Every structure is written in structure tokens, then in C-alpha cells.
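ARCHIVE CARD
Drawer: 12
Card no.: 0347
Subject: one protein chain, sequence and derived structure
Cross-reference: see card 0346
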Amino acid sequence: MHITVLQGEIQKKAADVLVVNLFNGTRPSGAAGAVDRAIGGQIAAAIDLGDFRGKSGETLLLYTQGRIPSPRVLVIGLGQAKDFDLEKSRAAAGTAISALARLGAKNAATILHGTGAGKLPVAAAAQAVAEASLLAAYRFDGYRACDRSHPLKKLRVIEIDRSKLKEARQGIQRGNSIAEATCLARDLINHPGGDATPAYLARTARRLAKSQGLRCQVLDEKGIKRLGMHALLAVGQGSANKPRFIALEHGPKNGAPLVFVGKGITFDSGGLSLKPARGMEIQKRDMAGGAAVLGAMAAIGRLKPNVEVRGLIASAENMPGGNAVRPGDVL
């Protein structure tokens, strides 16, 4: 999904669907009011009939019948204004994306959620919209024969105040970076254990380092042994997929760094102490900590904070085999 920021009045924009919002117990105002007037008071009529109140997560779909360039308007309920915060702004954006998917919309235009009566900063609200929209649209379809990707390909954020465009664009860019990094972590966790091996995580780290300007070091069995990491070697010695120790670094080396450490056991069968068959398929998720570190370092590489950050991942595959570590072995 490509998210952009444009200046203008949302009721004058052409899209498959326009997205506006309303707090619980209020009348249409601001952008929602402008849209309501342009389509003949349909939002106000729905409120008067009790069909829409603006509760958190509530939606109202209206058809404009040619009154404005866009054929449909989606109104998102924001709940009580006094309780509104960034998390509720994210929830509103996620609700909108789910509704747009059900409609099969390919492009949409939206306002930010909560920058008026909700009193949220423009940059923070824009970041929330970008994060929630991309994460709500996430699909993992790499192994499917048919395309089940989210239909929405283009989302335009409409800001009427020209002086706020820079803040909105900065927020969208930051939200994009964080959401894309989160999607990377999700992809790594969703891959089958036979594909997302320790070597695969190492290749992902090297690719991130090259694309985001990070420093990367990957240790194989010899390097791991040289540093005395015998427990990591023991966990992986029953598998054909050998362990890797991965280190990613960002920023200047001055002072104490911020360090993320992630567990990267790409499949944890239990080794000779075999785990029960029930739930065995989810043991591929034992590398979720390592995936989170890779995602965090991807975001850090994009955002480039002026601080040293290190990401460390000990990765192995724990399998039974003739060379597997035995209970009671001395490491």
C-alpha cells in the first residue's frame, strides 16, 4: 500500500471511498461536516435515526449518488473525545482498512483521526494512521497459489491546512518505516521452519545491513566455538542446519549502547527430549525474539537515531539426531 499526503478538502477528492470520522454523541463538523453538507446531510440523518452514534469501532457506509467525485463515504466512530488517544487513533485506522477490504476498494482518501477535537499532534496522528493501515492490510501469501493480498493499493491522507503538511508527511514516513519493519518480523515468524533456518536469518541480517547502512557480523560454528558459546553449539548439533550468531550495529560508538537480544531457535523440537506432537508445528515461532530484533534493527536503520544500537541473535535449530546433545552432557 502506498500512502501519501495531499492538501485540500476531502469532499472534493476522487477515490473509491472517502473516510471521515465522528466522536460519540457529536454532530458532523470539520471534514465530516463538509462531507455531510456535500452529500445532502446523510450523516446527520443516520445520527437522527439512531443508525450511527460514533461509538468506537462503529462504521457507517453511505452512497453519494454523484453529489461528490467519490461514490462512497465511510464514517468511522471514534468513541468519547475525552478518552481518545493515539491507540484509539490506530484502532480507527485499522477499522477503516478492514472495512475498505470488505468493499474491495483499491484506493481511498482519509482524514487523520483525532487531530481536531481529539487534540492529537498532527505528526503523531499521521504516524498512527500509517502504522495501523499497513499492519491491518498485512497478509502472508508467499506460499499460496492464488493472490490474497489486500485490495487497497493507494491511501491518500487529506490535510486541509497547508501549514501542517510537513508534520503529516514526517509522521507518515515514520509510521511506514515502523510498520514495514514489523511486517518483516511477521514474515520471518510465518515462514516454515524448513525455510527460515539460522542461515536464512543470517542472510536477512546481511541484506538489512546492506540496504539500511548497518554494520553486520555473522559467526558460523568455528566463530561461535572460538567465543566459547558451547551451549548454542549444543542446541544445534543435532541438526543439519548449523547455528549462526548474528550481530547488527547502528550509530556512533560513543557511550553505552542500547542492546536488543533475541532468541533465534528456528525450530525447537526439544531435541532428544522430544516435545509432544500436539502443537509441534508452532515450534517454528521459537525464533520470534530474533525476528523482533531484525525488525527493530530494520526500523532503526530507516529512522537513523543518533545513538548506538546493537542487535544480537543466537540462532540454532534444535532437532533430534545421532549427534544431538544428550541430557547430562557436559558443555
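Annotation on reverse: The longest strand covers residues 258-268. Residues 5 and 234 are 52 Å apart (CA to CA).
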